[in-house]
Structure formats: C-alpha cells, structure tokens
Write a structure and sequence with these properties.
heterodimer; A: mainly alpha; MetI-like fold; B: Dipeptide-binding Protein, domain 1; ten-stranded mixed sheet; 15 helices; 34% helix
Amino acid sequence: MRFVIRRLLLFIAALFGISVVVFAALRILPGDVASIMAGINAPASRVAQLREQLGLNRPLIAQYFDWMGALITGDFGTSILTGRSVTALIGTRASITFPLIILGLLIAMAIGLPLGCAAVLARSPRVRAAFHVLAIIGGSVPALWGGLLLILLFGKGVGLIGVLPSQGFPLDGWGKPGSAVLSLILPALTVGIIVGASLMRYTRAALGDLAGSGYIDMARSCGMTRTQAVLYVGLRLAMPQLVSVIGLTFASMITGVMVIENLFALPGIGNGLVIDVGNRDLIAVQSELFLLAAFFLGVGLVVDVLHRMLDPRLKSVSAVMEVDA
Amino acid sequence: MSQDNGVHAGSGATTDASLASRAKNPKKNGPKWWLISLIAVIVACAVVIGVTVAYGKKNDSADASAKNMVADTVTIGLKLAPTNLDIRNTAGSALDQVLIGNVYEGIVARDSKNQVAPGLASSWEESKDGLTYTFHLNKNMTFSNGDKLDAEDVAWSINELIAKQYHDADAITAVSKVEAKDADTVAMTLKTPNSNLLWTLTGRAGLVFDKDAKYDLKTQAVGSGPYTVAKFVENTSITLKANSEYWGKNKAKTPTIVIKYLADDNAAVNALKSGDVQVLAPITESLAGPFKSDSDKYTVKAGNGTDKYVLGFNNASGSKLADKRIRQAIRYAINHKEIIASRGGADKALGGPIPSLDPGYEDLTKLYPYDQAKAKLLMAEAGYSESNPLELSLTYANIYGTELGDQLRSQLKPIGIDLKVNVVEFSTWLQDVYTNHDFDISLVDHNESHDFYSWADPTYYFGYDNAEVQKLYNEGVAATTDKERDAKFAEAAKLISEDAPADWLFNYRITTVTAKGVKGFPFDLNQTVLPLYNVTYSLAEFSQQ
C-alpha cells in the first residue's frame, strides 16, 4: 500500500515536471499559429491582429498558469485552429490508434510468445538457429517496407490477393464495426509482425535464462519433464519480466505506430500530433503531449504494481529495505 | 543462454531409471511444441485471410447489384486538408477550393478560365469613373437554413469583412462602403478605381454570409450554395450533401459528395485503385503513369492553373543577391526544360511573374534562356568561379520534396554557386523567410491568382523595390478598362523579369485522374475553384469496361 502511495506521489511530481518541459520546449519552436492562419498573402498587421486575438502576446508565465489551472480542473483546452476541445480531438484519434495497437499487440503476442517458447524448447540446434534468424529478420524489417509489402500482397485493388482495404478509416468510424475492423487488419498485422519478433526475442531470452537455472533442475528432479518444467515453472517465473516488456511496448506503440498510420492514411494520435505541431497549434500539442506522457507514466505505474503482484519476492525485499531505512 | 539447454537435458545424470526415461520424453515432445505453435500461427493467419476473403466477396456483390445506376455518392481524393472551416479567418486555398461556389457563394463567381461570371448578382454596372459598382441580385435566394438572402446580407458581409479585417480584407482596401439600395440592389463605392475589384470579389472578399445565423464558423458552414457541409473531420474529410432548397439553376446532380484528404501519395493511389475514391487531384505525373496506360478505366488530364513555383531571391540591399549579375547568372544557369521533364513534363515554362490565366500575361521565357556559358561569365565578373564558389542558402518548406533542391544545387554548382539547401517545416519557413526575411533564396508555390501586387510591395519578402514597376502597377490597378490594365501589367512584368529578382521555375499544372464514369469534374484551376454541382459517377459505364 505504502509502495502504491509513494509511486502515486512520484507520478504527480513527474507530471508537473513534464508540463513545464513540454510548455517550454514548444515555445522554442520557430513560427506560430497566427502566421499559419494569415497565410502568405497577408500583411504583417493581420498577423499582429490575430496574435492579439488569440492571446499569443500575453506573458508566457500567464499562458502557462492558464493552461495548468485548466488542466487541474480537467479542461485540456480548445485547439486554436480546429476550434474543437482537445479531449474530443484526442478521443476521435484514440478511437483509431487504441484499437490498432491493441490488435497489433494481440497479434504480436500470438506470434511472439509461442515462437519464443518454441525457440527455447526446440532440441535441435538447427531449429533453434532458424528461430533466431526468424526473430532477427522480423525485428529488423522497417515498418514502412513491411507495410508496403503487405499492401502489395493483400491490399484491395492493389495486391495479389486484394481483399483488405489498404488505406483510410471508414467515414462512419465505429458506426460500421465490420469495415472499421477490416481497415485495421493490415496495419495491425504490420505492427504485430514487427513487435512480435521483438517479443519473441524477449521471451526466448527470459525463458532461456531460466531454462538453465536451478528452478528448472529442481522442477525436473521433482518429476516434471523439461517441457513441463519450462512451461509451468519457467514461464511463471518469466511472467513479471514479460509483463514489463509488454506494458512498455504497448505504451510506446501509441506514437510508435505513427509511420504505419501515415502509410495506411489512418487519422490516429501520432498522425494528428505531427499535423498539430506543423500548424503550431500549441494549446492542442501541449495538452496532447501531456496526456501521452501521463498515459506512459500510468502504464509504468500499473506495470510496477503488477510486477509486485506477480512476484511476491519483491515485496519482502522492499519490506526489508524499508526496515533498513 | 539457451544454448545450455541441451547440456542439461542430455546430461540425465540420475540413477533413477524412471526419471531417466521421463527425461528422454521431451526429446520426442520437443519438436512437437514448436511445430504446434508454428501451425497455430499459420492457422490463425489462414483464418484471418479466409474471413476477409469472404467479407471482401460480399462487398463485391453489393457493388454489382448497384450496376446501371448513377451513384448517389462520389468520393473525391484531394491532398491539402483544411484544419477548420473558418473561411473568414484561416488562410489556405484548401478552404476556397471546397467551400467557395459549393457551400458559400459570392456576389460574383469565377469560371474555370479564371474569368468573372454572374454569382448571387445576375448583372452589374460600373460607373464611368470606376468609383461606383451597382449589383443586381437574383430574386428569391435563400440560405441552406431557410433564411432569405437579400441585399442586406450582401452589404453586411462585405462591410463586416472590412470592419473586422478578416482574411483578404486587404484586397479590397479601395472599397469605402457597401449599401443595400433595395432588397435586390447593392451599391459599392470606391475611394479609387480598382480594375481587379470584380475578380477579387469572386474570392473570399465577395462571399455572402447569413447575418442572422449563429453558428461556429470553425466546424460548421451555413451558405447559399448547392451543397451543405454534413460532416467535417479536420485534416481528414468533408461530407457534402446536396442542398435540396437551392435557389439557383445549377442544382447538385449527386446527392452526396465525400472529399477525402490523402496526404500520403501512395495511400492516395491505393485509394483510387481500390475504388475508395473516384477522383484524385492532384497526383504526381510519375504516379499517374500507370493510370495513363490503363485508359479503359481511367482518364488522366493536366489542367491549367495559376501555381507559380517561385525561386525568390532576397533583393534587399546588403543581401548577397543584391548584385544583379548573380541573379541573372542563376536565371541563365537553371535548365527549366530539364526540371519540367524530370517532373513528368506536364508543367509549363514560365518566364515572369504573371501566369497565363492572369491579366497581363506575356510569354517571357525567351528573356533568360538556358545558357551556362553566359552564366559563368556573369559569375566571373562578380568574382566567383567553380573553384571559388559563392555560398548561398536555399530555404523551402518540406511539402515540395527534396528533389527540386538537389536539382538546383547541381545545376548551380558549375557556375560557381555552392547552394546549401534547407528543407524546413512550413511554419519555420513562414517565420524565417516570410516574416524575418532571413534567407538568400526561397522556393514557394505561389498558387494564388492575381498576386502580382507582391512585386509592387517592397516590404514583401522578396524585398523587390522598383519605382517604375510600382508606378506601372498602380496605373494598371487604377485603369478603367481591362485592355489598359493588361498593357500596364504586361509592361511591369517584363521589367521585373529583366531585373531577375526571382526565377520562375515553372507554372505547375495539376494532374487529375478520374475513374471512367465520372463526369463533370473540372480539370482547370481545380485546386482553387472546384465547382462540384455538375459531378456525377455512373457505375454502369464503369462496369461495362
């Protein structure tokens, strides 16, 4: 309990630090939203007028506290250019990105975990080497190239077996769940294969370490076969490590899938962030970055707590340390 | 670490026979495990593919049943997306393109030859001195919300533009007041005659809004045009629905038009191939190649436009390019033919600041023909050679790609210019080049029509200050006949081109691809003026092919 509270306090402190860094970093960028709105045929007076209207002339400290004050009450502000609330903007984009990464992660797990286990269990060194090569190839495929390859294979109107939509998200969004899921399959496969390969390597490494450890010897001397020992004892012991890896992979995928979103013309979070930065829609960008950072930290927090639940040994260690301190 | 496994498994250093025999079991089971997981993966993939094949077939049959029909939805793929719908405040031709003439209408309209045509006003008169315009409006006009559109709305819209200094207000500074004489007559009074006035009113300055309607301009649009905005997703798509109450005779032929903004070129091509969009504009010439050869299914055509790829020099005194010889050398050294050819050959050479669709156009490409020897000579006079090059920077926005910068660098190298190419974000370009004038050479697609004034304004980022040009320009603007105006502009344009304050790389012509069965889609000027009322898509024609 104490651990959770301490982590929560740290979480809040980190968020505060992030808000300062994000705010400051964005003000260093050259260019501003007023000149974007005014365009390349407007006189300087028009830019000045817009800056005044949008409150861009106000002191930075005042702008920061306005933003922070609103954030505390749960108001993420309104995007200057689109006129929509940042919460709504992120909501629409997240309704594409989250299903995409969840689907991608499920595919990655379906590929990575069994193959990782299989790589450890395989007896013949040749088969093991083959798994090794597979993991390296899968992990080193650039997302763009992998995606293009999949489009050339399965893209509707383009591919050899052209059955899947290769770009765009249905206009009705999740109003048409069938076509929405369909449009996510190819991008999710692209992400899934690449992330799956790295997951496979993690699984193999974690499980491989354990397979040579005393735990497995012990289990086997209790009468388990090696396969049983690795799957029941080894996997259980590797679980905390794998949960960390999967959790952090999930968090980093939110912006990591940006290339994929671009390739498949999906208006997701990463894609939107790039557009907003390009337009210098700073209120939107700073709230988006803040939320992303909060999400990342949140996933870290959950992973840490899960870690302790899955590995009771950590509890006793920290208890001892707390007594020492 | 995993290499250790074999040792452990093989060691079997136990005396217990039953344990030893169990220890061997994994040897048999071993291959099974990875085989099972591999099979599982393959099966999973097969199921996914199978399901989608089945699903895909279903879609096809749905399409087939719709044969012999005029589609009630046409989907159009464009490139540059608007971030909001606020045509009063937000710059960018993406808004003009989709909203003007379709959703909002102006007091006068523009045809695809860039000429002024009747709009909300069916006719107009200009006083002899050019200081008063009287517009006669059509009768029984309404906005899409049912409100009446009369002279009051027209006068209010334009007066409001001037009072609030909305976007493009600076284009009609000559206007002193706009009055509603009666329900369908509007009088416009000018301080000085302006030969560009009518054309300017075909754009944002002449748009008419409902003075009684309250709505969020950024996300909604209430106009009088043949279409209404049914749905807008910023940076992504706009859905237009036909305005069933449209007052005019050009009623929308297709009930729903969806505009999708496809920033990625490959995604755009895939969208067209898969039938998700029926039109793609623009498409690069190289990507259009496969569609050209598939002429049974697609029509590919390049249209005229006013896009000028301007290689603008910093003409301000103190700049490295204040020396006219260097500017001239650059113009002689650029091989325009080669650049146009490498882009696919659709673009047109342009020798001066006025494109062919604008008043005062003259072919000026002969002024600076490609002549490397002459360029070298001029550079030598200025004190530079290939071994002692002049260092210049070229700054442009990343939307134009890196090829142009590379081509220019290699074309200018032999004459003794070491070009440093900075490809930056558009907002950085706006800050450094446009606002702060901190650049040597800049490259922009100045796509606006009638933007010749930028050469008569020394504070514009080119910093070009020529009293003779300014005088001619002002005389042209004040001219009361088009002929007189065109002559003055042409004379000024020639002076400018001779002075070489910039090089005009080419007049970009937009290439458009339409699927067979699409009719009425305009090819000329379609990045700024895109009337959609006439667009139809007949599926029968497509499926017969």
